[in-house]
Amino acid sequence: MKKARWLLISALLVLSILAMFLPLARFPEDALGMLQKDIDKYTRRVSDYQATYDRYVAQGDPQDKLDKQKAKVEKAQATLDEYLAQAEELKQQGSGSALTYALLPQADLPAQLQFDQTRINESRIYQPQTDQYRLLVYLAAGLLAGALLLMLLGRARLVSKAYTVSGLLNLGALLVLLYALLRLRAFPIQSPYTDARMTGLQFPLILLPLLALLLNASGVHNSKRTMIYVVCIALSLLSLLPFWLMIVNATRSTYQIQQGVSLLPSTYFRNNLNILTGKQFDIMVGFKNSAIIAFGSTILSVYFSSLTAYGLSVYNFKGSKFLYGFILAIIMIPGQVTATGFYMFMYRLNLVNSYIPLIIPAIAAPGTVFFLKQYLSANLQLSLVEASRIDGAGEFFTFNRIVMPLMMPAMATMGIMAVIGSWNNYITPLMLLSNPTMKTLPMMVKELRGDIYRTEYGSIYVGLTLTALPLMVVYFALSKYIIAGVAVGGVKE
């Protein structure tokens, strides 16, 4: 790496650290004017309450009614007097200078907000002053400082590993800063009387470390591979972020969720789970029903689709091309088109509230047949089948003992896809299942949007997490088969 490039990257990292002290949020200057709106509102309220009290007196209403109304008048008047005192204090202090807020939190509230700190604390409206947010910002600063230190230690050596590690630390700091800005926008940064506004200086905060990262990656040995690694890591983290947020929110209370985004788990998972299970959400019943349908349909779909793909690949019979084209045509028909007809057919067969129409039709899976057919066309040697026949093996023996082991990567891939599709299926079970004891997990999760769960966001996220958790386990356990199956199945000799 050239010395100029090294100096530029180091300078960008230094500026990135300093940029964390930029004023990212600005409070409007006219705090007194905003306070005057509250004064006018309570002036009208005192006048209305007093008019109502005078009317009650003229009507000769009971004394207890008069006392209640008199208490309202006195309470509103006390609040008005408090606001008038605050306004007088602001006039003496002056409110001409705008308040600013840097990304790196300060120890105390801005001086102009001190006059109503009690209300701020009670309303929790100056949320960026939390320990979690402070820790988050310090983490970003530490990562940038580590990247800068490695740059200084690496000096100008072109292939130094210090630059690679520095780039990774820089990438980590960039992601943390993005998250910090999201929190800065999510949390209501506001004074008692007005919202803060972003100043636009948050863009240099992201641009500076991004430029340092790009210069670093383009200047090291084998820069193309480094850039690919950096992009893949960033995309992977962004892909996993929604799932991680779902899991984290399952451990947070409803109040914490309403306050904004957080990447750190909390301690309310058990409480959320108790609320969920205490409101007719039977997790084990949902798991059992979904597992019966998902795994039953997957086994039938994968095995019989493999048989169909094997027949289309091995046997050269009249009309085979037409049959294969017909299968491809079925793929293009949306399931919603046949949904009504399918329901009426099952209703006439008296198969409503049964798992049979959700499992047996999976035998005919045109998409799975297409994928497995392409896989066999690229990988199956017909000489193996012919040798098995010469040795006297039957067709089913040949398929089960010789061909199917060769198809395992593709079958595992389609099996995972089938499990995910069947597990997440909502429309078809909703049409056919009305018995509460037969509901699948997606149907039960849909009920979480009902009135009894409307304000229990933590419980809703627990239900979503429990629904997605088996799919995550299956996917990560068998992901290697997906990669192998897709890679090989997409190549045709």
Describe this structure in words.
With 493 residues, this protein is mostly helical. The chain has 2 domains: 3-29 and 97-267, Butyryl-CoA Dehydrogenase, subunit A, domain 3; 274-489, MetI-like (MetI-like fold). Helix content is 71%, strand content 2%. The chain has helices at residues 3-19, 31-59, 63-93, 117-123, 131-154, 161-186, 202-219, 223-249, 254-259, 269-277, 283-314, 320-331, 335-348, 356-359, 366-379, 382-390, 395-406, 408-423, 427-432, 441-446, 457-489; strands spanning 23-27, 99-102, 197-198. It has a 3-stranded antiparallel β-sheet, with no helix packed on it. The longest helix has 33 residues, at 457-489. The two termini are 44 Å apart.
| Envelope shape | flat
Q: What's the CATH topology label of the largest domain?
A: MetI-like fold
Helix/strand/pairing category: mainly alpha
Strand line-up of the largest beta sheet: 2-1-3
The topology string of helices and strands comes to: HEHHEHHHEHHHHHHHHHHHHHHH
Tally of helical runs: 21
Strand content: under 5%
Corresponding CATH architecture of the largest domain? Orthogonal Bundle
- CATH C-level class of the largest domain is Mainly Alpha
Unreliable spans: 95-101, 104-130, 187-195, 489-493
Radius of gyration: 33 Å
CATH superfamily of the largest domain: MetI-like
Helicity range of the residues?
over 70%
Number of strands: 3
Ends: how far apart? 44 Å
Write the layout of secondary structure elements.
Layout: H1 3-19, E1 23-27, H2 31-59, H3 63-93, E2 99-102, H4 117-123, H5 131-154, H6 161-186, E3 197-198, H7 202-219, H8 223-249, H9 254-259, H10 269-277, H11 283-314, H12 320-331, H13 335-348, H14 356-359, H15 366-379, H16 382-390, H17 395-406, H18 408-423, H19 427-432, H20 441-446, H21 457-489
Antiparallel strand pairs: 1-2, 1-3
